[in-house]
């Protein structure tokens, strides 16, 4: 990558495209923006490949570029237009409830659980951007606290505080549902 | 019990803490039922969230990569275009040359500032002219800058 080998870049895109798009979508909740910004992250990666010194894990470095782009996008206000709640997804037309798996046999229990999860994920969407990013990186991307700290460019203690506050909010949402 | 390890419960249930920290939190949980319950809630919540991550809408990956390739090519063309444009490059080089020439020339013409006589100093203090002195001294040079700034217009009029 450091010497901008086209084939290496193509391979890298093929390897990371799904993760990049999924992460961008989780932060933005808009498929078009997620596609645009994940592609932009690959372009930035291509342009700055020579500055990757190999000190951090490649995925951490790439996540940092992508998460920064997504948080900037949301900060500018364009990304906040869609809140999850029970609104249908603009791309598939399905509500979150429809998109969730239903693993329980009892339909009443399953419905109750899905409703609760819908509310919890809606609460994730309303978290402060850094808290939200930390939760998504932990729960969805399964990054460790030091890795999240590297992506968000803050200390591990700060990540712990972000996650603690986020989980406290989400627990309250879950308990009141 | 003081010092509840609130922010460490998440890393604790995920097994991320260093052995000494883990030991400390575990000891606290043994003695503190509230934190123990809290840790269980955190564990349950993280499991629930992990199992219910919303699924992103499907993407046509072939089209995605084709779009990315087009965007990348466009970006590279734009970058190349800026550097390869001969006119701005030539103009910048000429302007830099002219500026360098005037910088050297003005340095050569004013070898040093002559010491001020006491009379001049008194007049200067009274008239508040000394602050403007360096500007007045370079008025001719500033006029030259005006000419430089309008060089492209002059070239246009000469051609016309």
List keywords for this structure.
heterodimer, A: 177 residues, mainly alpha, Rna Polymerase Sigma Factor, Chain: A, Arc Repressor Mutant, subunit A, 8 helices, globular, B: 160 residues, 9 helices, 0% strand, elongated
Topology, element by element:
The complex is a heterodimer of chains A (177) and B (160).
Chain A: H1 6-28, H2 31-47, H3 58-75, H4 96-99, H5 107-126, H6 129-139, H7 145-152, H8 156-176
Helix pairs in contact in A: 1-2, 1-3, 2-3, 3-7, 5-8, 6-8, 7-8
Chain B: H1 9-13, H2 19-31, H3 33-51, H4 61-84, H5 86-109, H6 118-127, H7 130-137, H8 139-149, H9 151-159
Overview of the molecule:
The complex is a heterodimer of chains A (177) and B (160). Chain A is mainly alpha-helical and 177 residues long. Chain A has eight helices and no strands. Chain A has helices spanning 6-28, 31-47, 58-75, 96-99, 107-126, 129-139, 145-152, 156-176. The longest helix of chain A is centred in the N-terminal third of the chain and has 23 residues, at 6-28. The radius of gyration of chain A is 18 Å and the shape is globular. Chain B is an all-alpha fold. Chain B folds into two domains: 6-51, no CATH class; 86-159, no CATH class. The model of chain B has no long low-confidence stretch (mean pLDDT 77). The chains are: A mainly alpha (177), B mainly alpha (160). The A-B interface holds A 10, 13-14, 17-18, 21-22, 25-26, 31, 34-35, 39-40, 42-43, 46-47, 84, 89, 91-92, 96, 99-101, 117, 120-121, 124, 135, 138-140, 142, 144-145, 157, 160-161, 163-164, 167, 170-171, 174 and B 6-11, 14, 16, 41-42, 45-46, 48-50, 52-59, 61, 64-65, 67-68, 71-72, 75.
